[in-house]
Amino acid sequence: MASISRVLSVVLAVVASLTLTGGPSAAADVAVRVNQHAYQWNGPKHATVVTDSTTPLSWQLTTSAGKVVAHGKTKVYGLDEFSGDHVHLVDFSRATRVGERYRLVVGGVASFPFDIAKRPYEQLREDAFAYFYHNRSGIEIDAAYVGAQYARPAGHLGVAPNQGDTNVPCYPGSCDYSLDVRGGWYDAGDHGKYVVNGGISAWQVLDAYERAVTVSGGGRAEIADGTLRIPEAGNGISDVLDEARWEVEFLLRMQVPAGQALAGMAHHKMHDDAWTGIPMRPDLDPRPRYLQLPSTAATLNLAAVAARCARLWKKLDGTFAAKCRTAAERAWAAAVAHPAMYAQDLGTGGGGYGDGDVTDEFSWAAAELFTTTGRASYKAYLEPADLSEGFYWGSVAALGDLTLARFHNQLSRSEWRAVRDRVVAGADALVADMKSQGYANPYLPRDGHYAWGSASATPNSAFIIASAFDLTGKQKYRDAALESMDYLFGRNALNQSYVSGYGEQASHNMHHRFWANQANAAYPNPPAGALAGGPNSRLEDPKAQELLQGCKPAKCYVDHIDSYSTNEVTINWNAPLAWMALFADSPSARR
């Protein structure tokens, strides 16, 4: 369970990082790059060493008391393209003794300390899922669940100065009605709520639950009622499912009501009429909020998530399940009738989330509806996915294959084999991408640029690799999925843990309007378990442009609240982090 001690650990980690390294710029000078959090005792343990040496170097693994417990020679890798670093690799997987504050020493240079643990991601599992409760809209965030530092009044319920989300009108001139769209999760560092981002995020949280209860050793006990600190704990329903429902109900409210010209479609998003400043607690936001025009992409996101909702709640809450199924089928019919209604931005105050190709959304929604209903008519919309490219909110074809691969009872044997083979082939390509880089990472951008939210591509890709493990039982996929986590916790070009509260050099100045301590000391730093966006080599904000000119793609990151293009947080980045934390802490991955 989360505790006040966990909150304190975030503060101590920040202080320690500054004390040990002299600040973020000095962190990259610690040449031995490790997972600063922990390695699983019976899992892979790898590190990367920055050095100009062209011959192997000696390494030692030392305890907190300085005792050498393992040693060997580095393997020369050479130039890592995306960082510009010349590196060596270290494999110390044979070290399995559980302990705290180990260090890896190479050429007299020691890494940051790290643990070797039986369950290194047990706490992260809770912290990563807790991110969503912290960012709920329309409910008081209670100190009993998050501690006094993170407690706040409910946002956007119409209590002054809020204008509220219970009667939100369409953007002027776009339609003539208002909707009650309270609830849901704030999308990112702003107070907007977006259906395409909410859709993939809710889907991944739901998938975490569904994997846990359907895959042998998937972690059923780890997602049981009472495993998260949320108001719904104790109601007899999985807390992960309870958390997902908070967003699903918002998505349902975004559907155009019967009697309107676009009935059944979903509004693309809703947000303020202009960007608010930082800091800004949600309940203090004074700006008017508007519904943006419906889009086909948003409508298909709603169809996919609502179809899964109907499946998962069927035996838990038949009334809610039926409501979800009706919404899914209405959304599907509306999308078929309006297949090319693309997102438009009206005014400012929110991200665009534009998408000019919705073939992948049709395939994803069809896969979910087919799995839930068994109706063969949906199969005509299924498109084979290339899972080697991973997925994100704007490219979701892989999600359909991932669902079909797990629930193959509706498919013929040959159809299921084709889906399974695509998942495994995608995983193989992603594992190869990991091995081709000096800082093992299943994310390898083909265009040479690290994209906005690049850190989230790591757990999204690991999701596919982990799914191949579920399908085949092959240890190489489990090991690769676990190793991918190392990148997020410091085995990267900046020696930076991109997860708040985890690691000696952890991000803590994320772009967020409430977790805004850097802007105003009266506001808190992020709680533990929030994933930063990570390197973005296109430098898409003024602070990045000021500080990062000439950076190598893997190094285009700064832990600063003003760098929204490298250091924002979002629900669709934390959703794959939570999914992977649950996978890593599940019995199947710990064996």
From TrEMBL:
Its EC number is 3.2.1.4. The keyword Signal applies. Keywords: Carbohydrate metabolism, Cellulose degradation, Glycosidase, Hydrolase, Polysaccharide degradation, Signal. GO terms for molecular function: hydrolase activity. It is an enzyme of class 3 (hydrolase). SUPFAM superfamilies: E set domains, Six-hairpin glycosidases. It comes from the Bacteria. It catalyses: Endohydrolysis of (1->4)-beta-D-glucosidic linkages in cellulose, lichenin and cereal beta-D-glucans. Residues 1-27 form the signal peptide. This is Endoglucanase.
